């Protein structure tokens, strides 16, 4: 199999894939914020949460559900800002994964990635990195 990438391009392809995989795993894990509530350890991410309070109407009290799960719907995510973060971070991770998989295919297929395609892919990867870190579209930490 011939490659259309130089040695630097091959290293870029593999590092891109590792970074995209790490970003996607971080996006899907519910451990962005850690804390405690009702004397239980709680954590949540953009669309998953672990150990969350629920109102038990039969006993007229709040109880902790000690399991991890997604929000019931997109509207159940606590705030509009958190929903925007979910969408932007998901898009960023998707862009990173798209560029990384294209670069890996460039390692195996000749003439797939030209100088122009590499530059465009780098620009897309830059945007994906900015968005997956939450700094795109005017959001900063």
TrEMBL record:
GO terms for cellular component: membrane. It is a multi-pass membrane protein. The lineage of its organism: Eukaryota, Metazoa, Chordata, Craniata, Vertebrata. Keywords: Membrane, Signal, Transmembrane, Transmembrane helix. It is found in: Membrane. Residues 1-21 form the signal peptide. The gene is Lhfpl6. InterPro entries: LHFPL. The chain crosses the membrane at residues 87-109. It comes from Donacobius atricapilla. This is LHPL6 protein.
């Amino acid at each position: 199999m011939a490659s259309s990438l130089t040695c630097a391009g091959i290293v870029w392809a593999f590092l891109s894939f590792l970074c995209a995989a790490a970003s996607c795993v971080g996006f899907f894990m519910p451990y962005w914020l850690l804390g405690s509530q009702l004397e239980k350890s709680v954590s949540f991410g953009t669309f998953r949460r672990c150990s969350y309070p629920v109102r038990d109407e039969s006993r007229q009290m709040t109880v902790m559900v000690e399991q991890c799960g997604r929000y019931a719907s997109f509207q159940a995510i606590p705030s509009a800002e958190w929903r925007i973060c979910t969408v932007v971070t998901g898009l960023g991770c998707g862009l990173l994964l798209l560029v990384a998989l294209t670069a890996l295919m460039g390692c195996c297929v000749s003439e797939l990635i030209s100088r122009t395609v590499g530059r465009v892919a780098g620009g897309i990867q830059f945007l994906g990195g900015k968005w997956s870190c939450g700094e795109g579209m005017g959001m900063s930490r």
